[in-house]
Design brief:
The chain has 104 residues and is mainly β. Helix content is 10%, strand content 64%.
Length: 104
């Protein structure tokens, strides 16, 4: 089985490093990526993606990223299910970065 994504886009918001109770660094990087088609009016829409960065990748992106930088991210998708009560559960889909490459 394969669980992988590749995302190329511009850094929209800089990551802010936090530390977990176990002492691991974690941050979220917001990436703006163009959709691969034009709207009916000829314009291009963008999507914003929150990408979770762990440990060394979080530190590297915090040190090196600037708003507007173009980055390529390879990673995996993680789904966590939260049970509110016996009739309601919620899915939280997370993009987890495994490699970040700076294009600009």
């Amino acid at each position: 089985m394969l669980n992988v994504f590749t995302l190329v886009g511009k850094v929209k918001e800089l990551p802010q490093i936090k530390q977990t109770s176990q002492g691991n660094m974690v941050a979220t990087l917001v990436i703006e990526s163009e959709r691969p088609f034009r709207n009916s009016d000829g314009s291009i829409s963008f999507d914003l993606f929150n990408v979770t960065l762990w440990r060394g990748i979080a530190q590297m992106c915090s040190d090196c990223c600037k708003e507007g930088d173009v980055v390529a991210i390879k990673g995996r998708i993680q789904d966590t299910i939260y049970q509110k009560d016996k009739d309601h559960s919620y899915h939280n889909v997370e993009l987890i970065a495994e490699k970040v490459s700076f294009i600009s």
